[in-house]
Amino acid sequence: MPQDKQSQLDQIAADIRDKNVCPDLAKTATNLVMGDGNLNADIVFIGEAPGKNEDLQGLPFIGAAGKFLNEMLAAAGMDRSDVYITNIVKYRPPENRDPLPDEKAAFWPYLLKQLQVIDPKVVITLGRHSMEYFLPGMKIGEVHGEPKRIEFGDHKIVIMPLFHPAAALYNGSLRQTLIDDFLKVPKVIETMGKDG
Question: Does residue 196 fall inside a structural domain?
């Protein structure tokens, strides 16, 4: 079965290229960064967009923020190979600027297709950019670490918003908040991850 999922994800990447999604971003990017990890994962992490290292290697979350993410996974008794990691925007914005609303909107349908293929129990959004589409109108400072069950296609899915690891690297107090929130993840999967 995993091969089937891989071919479906490869098709999504091909569609992005064929439809020339965000041509301005594509022009300045080295790689289309689709995602990385376990195609049968219970958890999918969604960041905002690739940075410099990610763009060069074509993999998400491999710079400083990615190292911190790996540390948090380890603290929660998980490994990167257990989860799947992606971003809303699949090309690096120039100079690492925030992705623009129309860029996020252009990639949104492809992210949804990715999630349908992987079919996780819990989606963890990293930062406000990926949270706002799943939980519109909510502020990350108020809802971080609180799982929310939402309608997703023909079933419900659990969304758990967390601060972005990059923010925690610059803000020591956020770092502990993020670790504390992260340590709740296994319990959330156990209690809320059952489709209902």
Answer: no
